Amino acid sequence: MYNGYAQSAKLNGYPISPFKAKSLTDPSVFDFYNKLLDGKNQRQWTEFTAYNVALEETLFNNRVGVELVYDNQESDWGQTRYLSGDATAITVDIMDTLLNGIPNPNFGKPMVVASGGGAGGDWTNKKRETMRATVFGTLDFADFMDKKSMLTKILGKHTFTGLYTTQENTTQTRTWKNWYLGNNFGIVGDSAVNQAVRDVIVLDYLSDYSMVNLTSPAGLNLSNLQGKRIPAAGTAMVFDNTPTAAFDAVIAAKLNSKTGIVTDPITGVSVYHPEYDNNNIANYKGWRQMPTELVNNFALFGDKGGNYGSATHTVSKVDSQAFVWQGHMLDDVLVPMVGWRKDTELFRSAGSAPVTGATKGVGPIRTHPSGCSRPNRSPTRRQIFAPIPRRPVSRSRGASWRRARSSSTTSCPWA
C-alpha cells in the first residue's frame, strides 16, 4: 500500500504520518463499479427473531391488577471471506525468480493474495430473554367508609406495587479459517489451527498477461475472481535444514562454526572450510518437494465453520425486585411515597476454549445444567465454570412526599 511505502521511504512529511492508502480510480483497469474483486467468495448475513407476550388482568373495579410479560430476542450475524482488509487489492507478482532459483513463470502478472488468517470467517450469536411480573393493589378507604367523613379524607387512598424481573443475556462467538495445513506437513508440528505456521497463502492471478513491458495498467479490464476458490492439496517446495551425514559428523566432532574459518594455532593462518560452515546450504539436505495436506474447513462444515480457532461463551443474568407504596392522604394534600429495589447480577464465562484433538481446533461446546456452556475438556467443573458472582450491584430505598397548596383570588371589576 502507498501509505506504508511512503512512510518507509521517508517521503516529505513522514514524521507526522500524513499518507493515506491510494485507491484504484480507473475502471478500465478493473470495473470496481459493477464487480466485487472476490466475486462469489464472500458472504455476510444477519438474522434476528423477536417475540413477546404480555398478559394483563384487573379485578375488583381496577383495585387489583397483575401483568406478566415475556420477551425473547435473538440475533445472529457473521461473515465468510476470501480477501479481507488490505488484502482486498490488486497487486503484481514482482518475483522474477522463485526461492529455489527457478525462473518464475508468473512474473509480472496481476494477482490478488488470499492470506491464511484473512480467508476465514466469524460468527456471533446473542440471545436475550426477559420475564417480568408486576402486581398492584389499591386500598381506598372511600370504598368502605363514608366518603365525606373526615377520617376517610385523612386516611385517603394507598397503592402498593410489586415488581420482579429476570433478564438473561447469552453471547457466543466463533472464528475460523477456511482452510489450513494438516498435521502431516512436517513444519506445523503440534500447532493449533489459528497459528500462522498453518496458514495457506493463495496467489490468484487475474490474467495470463504479464505487465512487465507495460507503461500503464489502463485498459487491462481485469476480471474478478471466478467461481468458488478452494485450494487443493499438492506439494510445496521447502528448504530441508536437516544436516547431511557428512555435516552431522562435523557437528559431532564440534568442528562446525558460524563462519567455517579455522585458524592454525601455530602459524596463525586462517583458512575457510566450507564443510564446517553452519551457513553453507550445501551442508544441508536443501530444497525438496514436500507433500501438503490441506484441511478444507468450508467443505467440512459450511458457512458457519468448524475446527474453530477461537470460541467464547458468556452468560449474564440480572434479577430485580422492587416495591413501591404511594399514598394520597389528607384529601390529597399529603402524597407520600416509599420505594425499595434490589438488583443482583451473576456472570458466567466458559473461559478461553482449549485446543483439542488431532485437528488442533477448539473443542465442541457443551451446555452445562446451570445454563452456561463450556468447551468439551477434562478439568473439573469448578475449574471451568467457576462463576464470577457479583453481590447485589444495587440496593436502594427512597421516600418522598408532596404537600398540595391552595390559594384564593378576588376578581377585580375590570378583570
Question: Could you explain how this protein is built, in words?
Answer:
- With 415 residues, the chain is mainly beta.
- It has a 7-stranded antiparallel β-sheet with strand order 1-2-5-6-14-15-20, with no helix packed on it.
- The radius of gyration is 37 Å and the shape is elongated.
- The C terminus is likely disordered.
What is this structure, in a nutshell?
This protein has helices at 2-8, 150-155, 245-252, 297-301, 381-385; strands at 43-59, 64-80, 91-92, 110-114, 120-140, 157-177, 179-181, 202-205, 235-243, 261-263, 270-272, 284-291, 294-296, 310-328, 334-349, 355-356, 361-362, 365-367, 373-375, 388-403.
Protein topology:
Layout: H1 2-8, E1 43-59, E2 64-80, E3 91-92, E4 110-114, E5 120-140, H2 150-155, E6 157-177, E7 179-181, E8 202-205, E9 235-243, H3 245-252, E10 261-263, E11 270-272, E12 284-291, E13 294-296, H4 297-301, E14 310-328, E15 334-349, E16 355-356, E17 361-362, E18 365-367, E19 373-375, H5 381-385, E20 388-403
Antiparallel strand pairs: 1-2, 2-5, 3-4, 4-8, 5-6, 6-14, 7-13, 9-12, 10-11, 14-15, 15-20, 16-17, 18-19
